[in-house]
Specification:
Number of domains: 2
Mean pLDDT: 86
Number of strands: 0
Helix content: over 70%
Number of helices: 3
Structural class: mainly alpha
Largest sheet: none
């Protein structure tokens, strides 16, 4: 019974991770990922660097949170 619950939890969190990734893509699609299709102006290099730094910091933070939770 416990193995089945763990498998469901893994599926749930996997699905939530994909859902959040999809929402991020949809949220930034018009102004970033698909801007050439919507005629948005080019972004300065500083904004690209800001996005990369934010994404890396967020991913490291989330990974650390998940590691801490898994330890308990």
């Amino acid at each position: 019974m416990k193995a089945l619950t763990r498998e469901r939890e893994h599926r749930f969190f996997h699905a939530v991770a994909w859902l959040l990734a999809g929402l991020v893509f949809l949220g930034f699609a018009r102004t970033y990922y698909l801007k050439s299709f919507f005629g948005a102006p080019a972004l300065p290099l500083l904004l690209h660097a800001h996005g990369i730094v934010d994404a890396v910091v967020w991913l490291v933070h989330r990974s650390d949170c998940a590691r801490e939770l898994a330890a308990h």
